[in-house]
Write a structure and sequence with these properties.
346 residues; Rossmann fold; 3 domains; six-stranded mixed beta sheet; elongated
Length: 346
């Protein structure tokens, strides 16, 4: 019954697609709704014809399920919890539920994800990835399922709505804070070099050094993932240098807590002998010992804005280059201090 309701407004188009593909209208309906019972070759042919005919389902709100689908490459982190909280709050205000899906890597969801989302027919999709493939975008738009990317790992195509934050500014604020405390030997632990936020924070770090006339030291720039273990390993490498840094800007709070562990293992006191700045302002940052100075990335607010946007796009035409970057700010706690010891500064 729901299949008839959703195909009737464009029945002529669907009839033409079915005729051109030499299949029945029910087969086209199965493809549209992500149902099984269609071979991969037939499904691909029907999708291509739908695209060629410019089909776009005029779906009524009643034709979708009242839920928001939130898709991560990995869910098991404190960072993900902040995103989930923001999406869930706005979904609840609108009488909707949230379904979590773990799929693919940080660049895009896995190919089989799209079939599942078409079967679930959510009101909208929020993704934590670099971009979506042309095929995924087409298949979602064909079913009138809006989507938004949060904190994109890469630079999404102009036709992909995205909510991010001011990463360059965050990197600049963190480094300038350490410079104002008298540090000149400032290291950075970056994130993966194929992630836009990593390169933006590194660029902000370098700009702050340039503005202060501080020489760049290549050995003070080390990379990693955004995990605690990366902070332990990379922080240890920095502290074992012949001339170690007196301050470390860690590009995530999890990095920073890893640096804490590396410092403890070497008998280095924070902040007396080493100042540390993190990034994100996760809840665990204020519980660290000492409480962590960090750059607040408004993760929950980013998720809330993305959810509001995806719900609005159910009823509004989407314009290209729909982007919004929320402001970041420095939160000063007890993991940084002024460098007053001449021996450390030399």
């Amino acid at each position: 019954m729901s299949g008839e309701a959703t195909t009737r407004p464009s029945r002529t188009t669907l009839s033409r697609v079915a005729a051109d593909a030499s299949v029945s209208i029910s087969t086209v309906s199965k493809v549209l709704n992500g149902r099984a019972g269609v071979s991969d070759a037939t499904r691909s042919r029907v999708e291509e014809l739908l695209r060629d005919h410019g089909y776009n389902r005029r779906t009524s709100p009643e034709a979708t399920v009242p839920l928001i689908e939130l898709v991560f490459s990995e869910i098991d982190s404190a960072w993900a919890i902040e995103i989930i909280a923001g999406v869930e709050r706005i979904a609840r205000e609108n009488g909707m539920s949230v379904v979590l899906t773990e799929s693919g890597d940080r660049h895009s969801p896995s190919p089989d994800w799209i079939d599942g989302v078409l079967r679930r027919r959510p009101a909208g999709v929020i993704l934590i990835f670099s971009d979506l493939s042309v095929d995924h975008k087409h298949r979602l738009r064909t079913r009138n399922i809006p989507f938004v990317i949060v904190d994109p790992a890469g630079d999404p195509a102009p036709d992909v709505p995205a909510i991010g934050s001011a990463n360059w500014s965050g990197g600049f604020l963190a480094t300038r804070h350490l410079i104002e405390l008298g540090h000149t030997r400032i290291a950075i632990i970056t994130g993966p070099d194929d992630m836009m936020c990593s390169t933006a924070r590194l660029s902000g770090y370098r700009a702050a050094l340039d503005a202060a006339g501080i020489e760049h030291r290549p050995e003070y720039v080390v990379g990693g993932g955004f995990h605690h273990e990366d902070g332990v390993v990379r922080g240890g490498e920095l502290l074992d240098l012949p001339t170690p840094p007196t301050a470390i800007f860690a590009s995530s709070d999890l990095h920073a807590l890893g640096v804490y562990e590396a410092a403890r293992a070497r008998g280095v006191s924070i902040p007396d002998e080493l100042s540390v700045v993190g990034y994100d302002d996760l809840k665990i940052a204020k519980w660290a010992g000492p409480p962590l100075t960090t750059v607040r990335q408004p993760l929950t607010e980013m998720a809330e804005e993305a959810t509001r946007l995806v719900l609005r796009l159910r009823h509004e035409r989407q314009d290209d280059n729909l982007r919004l970057d929320l402001a970041t700010r420095l939160v000063v706690r007890n993991s940084t201090r002024a460098l007053t010891d001449v021996r450390l500064a030399s």
